[in-house]
Amino acid sequence: MKPVIALVGRPNVGKSTLFNRLTRSRAALVADYPGLTRDRHYGEGRMGDRPFLVIDTGGFEPVVKEGVLQEMAKQTKQAVAESDVVVFMVDGRQGITPHDKAITDYLRKCGRPVILVVNKAEGMKYTAVVADFYELGLGDPLVISSAHGDGVHTLLEEALGKVPYAPAETEDGIAGEQRPVRLAVVGRPNVGKSTMINALLGEERVIAFDLPGTTRDAIEIPFERDGKHYTLVDTAGLRKRGKVFQAIEKFSVVKTLQAISEANVVLLLLDAQQDISEQDAHIAGFVLESGRALVVGINKWDGLPPDKRREVKAEVERKLHFLSFAKFHYVSALKATGIGALMRSVDAAYAAAMAKLSTPRLTRVLEEAVEHQAPPRRQGSIRPKLRYAHQGGQNPPIIVIHGNSLENVGDDYKRYLEKHFRDAFSLTGTPLRIEFRSGK
Ligand code: GDP
Ligand code: GDP
């Protein structure tokens, strides 16, 4: 499980600036997909080999009235509840405000480690900056500048140091045996996830869900279908906790993110009887960002009249165009129709995600692509030269292209290459990443 860091503080202290800094590389990745809106409240970052999730609570700020904090907004509470460690940010140029004190009172009771961080401290004397904030009683403040990056690494070390670390065990292949496909079923509330899981698991579900899931560990539920083995990836409820967090909602973005990141293939469910919402698109965006293989199930297809069905299909194609690499299935979890075909797409997506692509074949396909259409020379720059390609990873497949002046390859041409590789290797159902490595 990835550690979860919540960024908390009153408006304008610099939370989103820090969030962007912590999650930068990922955001850039997603920007490659036109038409994708995403929730910038949740992001993934990495320190060394250690990935983590960050929640920026800016935008669902605590409610303030006459300078007094009335209530931490529900979402902020949820973010804190779902976190492993809270980074509480204050503004070094403004000093303590009543609002900071009110947040402190709340955080003191939250049962999470809290790191007090004084931001906007660039060019200021350490002692002068921190003196004020000892009064909050949260220990030694860390001093940072989100805008310039000073102190951010130390902050991360401190934050991640509060969470026990068990590096993922390396999975040596079980010779000759098929590894179960790890499948996560995600979607916004009420799209039919539980109904689908029931349909997939049948009787087993009862047993599985009785497992004592007292921590936030992932629950893994093995099941078999048509002689194939799968593991359903779910994340258990939140850690056992006192009254403070009883109001946590059934649907949790963090749980969704964790389940996605632990899976090989994600089954994204939508509700055919409702419009596609922003929340659907956000979740789709998370899947895309994670690089996991994807199958989209448009559920509740039963009982829809033909003209409505046409309408829904058109809407799905228009709004989820950025997922066109994935197979779409129109199904009913309730009536258990369409599920066989859907699971065959899960298998195909898994196979594509795990495909082994040899250097000679990749290079041959690259040469074909270039022969068919050479990368355009942009004005005033050297024409890129694409020499050979090798595979840099699986799930998602990463294709690393070597050559010269590759920084001059435009986005259009990158997309062209992606499509070419996708077609050549029949990589349906998985995102594909192309990376360039210039010789000079
Ligand atoms: P949020 O409301 O807490 O998310 O705050 P923002 O990240 O939107 O930042 C509020 C303002 O503070 C913006 O104008 C930022 O440019 C500025 N800011 C953020 N971090 C720093 C910093 O480290 N130093 C300075 N001087 N300004 C900062
Ligand atoms: P979850 O919140 O995503 O787990 O959704 P549930 O599985 O709890 O389903 C929400 C509601 O939608 C329930 O009333 C289900 O009976 C209903 N539902 C789920 N799948 C279908 C379906 O395929 N067709 C119809 N008509 N209703 C469904």
TrEMBL record:
Task of the protein: GTPase that plays an essential role in the late steps of ribosome biogenesis.
Keyword Nucleus: no
Gene3D superfamilies named among the record's database cross-references: 3.30.300.20, P-loop containing nucleotide triphosphate hydrolases
Keyword list, A-Z: GTP-binding, Nucleotide-binding, Repeat, Ribosome biogenesis
Subunit organization: Associates with the 50S ribosomal subunit.
Pfam families according to UniProt: KH_dom-like, MMR_HSR1
Organism in which the protein naturally occurs: Oxalobacter paraformigenes
PROSITE patterns, per the entry: G_ENGA (PS51712)
PANTHER family associated with the record: GTPASE DER (PTHR43834:SF6)
CDD domains hit by this protein: EngA1, EngA2
GO biological process terms, semicolon-separated: ribosome biogenesis
Binding residue positions for GTP 2: 187-194, 234-238, 299-302
GO molecular function: GTP binding; ribosome binding
Amino acids binding GTP 1: 9-16, 56-60, 119-122
Similarity annotation: Belongs to the TRAFAC class TrmE-Era-EngA-EngB-Septin-like GTPase superfamily. EngA (Der) GTPase family.
Name of the protein in question: GTPase Der
NCBIfam families xrefs: GTPase_EngA, small_GTP
